[in-house]
Write a structure and sequence with these properties.
Vps52_C, 23 helices, rod-shaped
C-alpha cells in the first residue's frame, strides 16, 4: 500500500514536471516562425502558444521562483519583443491599405483585418504601449477616411438640392409681392410644394431604401427637396456607423473606439447641417426631417446599435426650434396680413385659404401616428388667425350675401382638402364644418328673402296667430296677395335661385346641396302659409290659387336630379 502511494505520487510529479517543461520551453521551430515566418494561420497559432507561455511564467508563483525560468526567461522576452514588433509592422501595413483611394473599407475589414484580430489581442495583452499606437493609428486613419468620405458625399448631394421655400414664402403673403424679387422662380401662388405635402410623403415610405448615388442623379438632371438628401445622408451614416461599431467591437474588443473615430464624420455632418438649417424656411420639409429622424431612431433600435443615440437626439433637438420658428413666421404672416391688398372682388376660394388648408392638412397628416400635442396647439393658433383674416376679407364685400358666399366657398374648400388628406374627425375639420353649416343657414335665409320676403315675414310674424273672436288674426285680405304672388312666379323664382347658386359656388355639389336646403326651407314656409289660409274664415276661396305641396316637391326633385 505504501509502495503504491509512492508510485502514484511519483507519476503525478513526473506529469507535472512534464507539463512545466512543455509550458516554459521554447522550441526552435517556434523561434523560427516568430522571427522569420510570414504572418499566416500557422503564425497566428504560434502566437497563441507564445501568449500561453508568457502568461504561464507571469501567473504561476512557483515558476517565477524556479531556476529553469532564469535560463528561459531572456529567450521568452526576446521572442515577445520580436513578436510585438512584427505584429505592429504588420498591422500598420494593413491599416495603410485603408487609406488608398477607392478602397472598399468594409470588405477590407471583414475579409482581411478580422482574420488577424488575434494579432491585436496579442498586442493588447503583451505589448500595451504598441497596442496603444495601433489603436491610435486606426482611429486616425478611419477618422480621416470617413470624414473625407462624408465631406465628398455631402458636396455631391448639395448639387442635387431643389429649393422649395424662402423667407417670403408664407401663408399670408400677397401673391404679387413675392414674384418681383425672385428671378427664375415660379410665382408662389402656383408653387404648391411650399404648403402641400403631395408626393413628398413618400420619403417616409422609402425610409430604409439605399442612399442616393449622387453622380447618377446628377447625370439624369434630377433635383430633390432637402428632406430627400437629408434621409440619404443619414441612411449612409446609419449603415456606415453600424458596420464600424460592430467591427470595432469585434476587432478591438471595445466599442468606445467608435466615438473617437466618428468625432470627425460627426463634425463634417454638423458643419453642413448648421449651414443648411438657418436658411431652411420649408416647414413641411422640417417636419418631414423630424419624422425621418424618428424612423431612423427606430431602425437603429431594431438593429440594437446604440452608437447614434446621442447624435440623432441632438439633430432632433435642433430641428424642432427651427420648425417652430418657421411655423411662427407663417402664423404672424396671417396675423399681420394686409387685408386690403389681399382682397380680390371674387367670392371664390381665396389662395391664402387654400394655402392654409393644404398646409394644415399636411401637418395633420404628418402628426397622425405621433399625436404631438404641441403641434396640435400650434395648429389651433393658426386656425384662429386664419378665421380672423377670412372674416376681415369677407367684410370688404359690399353685399351681405356676397360675404356669406365667400365664407361658404372657403369653408367648403378647406373641408374638402382636409378630407383628401385623410384627416376625418379632426378638430379643425369639425370646426369648419360647424362654420359651413351656420353660414349655409344664413345664406338660405338671404336667398329666400330676395324672392319671397313678404311671405317669409308673414309666416314668421302672423301665421301662428290664432283666428278667434277675441283676437284679430290674419284675414283673407292679408293672405290673398301673398298666395297669388307666389302662384304667379314661384317657378321663375326657383329658376333664378338655381342660377344664383350655380354662379356663386365653386363646388357644384355643395351648391346643389345649398339649393336643396333653400327649396326645402321654402316648402316649409309655404306649407305654414297654406295651413294658415285653411284656418282663416273664407280662406277656401283661395284654394284655386294655392300651389299644391306635391307640385313644389316635384320641382324640388327635378332640381335634385341635376346632381
Amino acid at each position: 500500500m505504501d509502495m503504491g502511494l509512492k508510485l502514484k505520487n511519483r507519476k503525478a510529479a513526473e506529469s507535472k514536471l512534464s507539463r512545466f517543461v512543455e509550458d516554459i520551453i521554447v522550441p526552435p521551430r517556434m523561434v523560427d516562425i516568430i522571427v522569420d515566418g510570414e504572418v499566416n494561420d500557422e503564425y497566428l497559432r504560434t502566437l497563441e502558444i507564445l501568449s500561453k507561455k508568457l502568461k504561464f511564467v507571469e501567473v504561476d508563483s512557483m515558476v517565477k521562483a524556479s531556476k529553469a525560468l532564469k535560463d528561459v526567461q531572456p529567450e521568452l522576452e526576446r521572442l515577445r519583443q520580436k513578436a510585438v514588433s512584427k505584429a505592429f509592422e504588420f498591422m500598420i501595413q494593413k491599416l495603410y491599405a485603408l487609406r488608398k483611394p477607392k478602397t472598399n473599407i468594409q470588405i477590407l475589414q471583414q475579409n482581411v483585418l478580422l482574420k488577424y484580430k488575434y494579432v491585436v489581442l496579442f498586442l493588447k495583452e503583451h505589448g500595451k504601449e504598441i497596442y496603444a499606437e495601433v489603436h491610435a493609428a486606426y482611429v486616425d486613419t478611419m477618422n480621416k477616411v470617413l470624414s473625407a468620405h462624408f465631406r465628398a458625399y455631402i458636396q455631391a448631394l448639395e448639387k442635387l438640392q431643389l429649393d422649395i421655400a424662402t423667407s417670403t414664402d408664407l401663408l399670408g403673403v400677397e401673391t404679387r409681392s413675392t414674384g418681383l424679387f425672385l428671378r427664375g422662380r415660379e410665382p408662389i401662388k402656383n408653387r404648391s410644394a411650399v404648403f402641400a405635402l403631395g408626393e413628398r410623403i413618400n420619403i417616409l415610405k422609402e425610409i430604409d431604401q439605399p442612399a442616393l448615388i449622387p453622380h447618377i442623379a446628377e447625370a439624369n438632371s434630377q433635383k430633390y427637396p432637402y428632406e430627400v438628401l437629408f434621409r440619404s445622408l443619414h441612411k449612409l451614416l446609419m449603415d456606415t456607423a453600424t458596420s464600424e461599431y460592430l467591427f470595432c467591437d469585434d476587432f478591438f474588443g471595445e466599442d468606445s473606439i467608435f466615438y473617437e473615430i466618428f468625432a470627425g464624420p460627426f463634425a463634417v455632418i454638423d458643419e453642413h447641417f448648421n449651414a443648411i438649417l438657418p436658411n431652411c424656411y420649408d416647414a413641411i420639409g422640417l417636419m418631414l426631417m423630424i419624422r425621418i429622424i424618428h424612423q431612423h431612431q427606430l431602425i437603429m433600435f431594431r438593429r440594437r446599435i446604440p452608437c447614434l443615440d446621442s447624435y440623432l437626439d441632438k439633430v432632433n433637438i435642433s430641428l424642432w426650434p427651427r420648425f417652430k420658428m418657421v411655423f411662427d413666421m407663417h402664423l404672424n404672416s396671417l396675423r399681420s396680413a394686409n387685408v386690403k391688398t389681399l382682397w380680390e372682388d371674387d367670392v371664390h376660394p381665396h389662395y391664402v385659404m387654400r394655402r392654409y388648408a393644404e398646409f394644415t392638412a399636411s401637418l395633420v397628416h404628418l402628426n397622425v401616428e405621433y399625436g404631438d400635442g404641441q403641434l396640435d396647439l400650434n395648429l389651433e393658433r393658426l386656425r384662429m388667425a386664419v378665421d380672423d383674416l377670412l372674416v376681415k376679407l369677407a367684410k370688404l364685400f359690399m353685399k351681405p350675401k356676397s360675404q356669406i358666399v365667400f365664407l361658404i366657398n372657403n369653408y367648403d374648400m378647406t373641408i374638402a382638402i382636409l378630407k383628401e388628406a385623410g384627416t376625418e374627425g379632426g378638430k379643425t375639420q369639425m370646426h369648419f364644418e360647424e362654420l359651413l353649416k351656420s353660414n349655409i343657414a344664413i345664406y338660405v335665409e338671404e336667398l329666400l328673402a330676395e324672392h319671397f320676403s313678404d311671405l317669409i315675414k308673414f309666416v314668421k310674424t302672423r301665421a301662428s296667430e290664432e283666428t278667434s273672436s277675441s283676437s284679430e288674426g290674419p284675414t283673407v285680405s292679408d293672405v290673398e296677395p301673398l298666395v297669388r304672388d307666389f302662384a304667379s312666379r314661384w317657378k321663375a323664382a326657383i329658376e333664378l335661385m338655381h342660377k344664383d347658386v350655380i354662379t356663386s359656388f365653386s363646388n357644384f355639389l355643395c351648391g346643389m346641396e345649398i339649393l336643396k336646403a333653400a327649396l326645402t326651407q321654402l316648402l316649409l314656409y309655404y306649407t305654414r302659409l297654406s295651413e294658415c289660409v285653411k284656418r282663416i274664415s273664407g280662406g277656401s276661396t283661395l284654394n284655386k290659387d294655392l300651389v299644391s305641396i306635391s307640385s313644389i316637391l316635384y320641382e324640388i326633385k327635378k332640381y335634385s336630379r341635376t346632381f
